[in-house]
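Slide 14.
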Amino acid sequence: MVFFYWLIKQKLRNRKLAQQGIVIEQKGLRPITLMSIVMLVMYGGYLIYFVFSDASAF
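Slide 15: predicted structure.
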């Protein structure tokens, strides 16, 4: 919840600065962001595999 508050606040701040003529350069994905996405996908894949492989025991 706090993250979304921060994200909206940043967007509004960047818009306000853009109206004043100050342009904020947008950066690409940072390496830590990319690594966290990969880790989440790997964990999600393992979780799905675990749930469906264990479901056959029932």
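Speaker note: The chain has one domain: 2-55.
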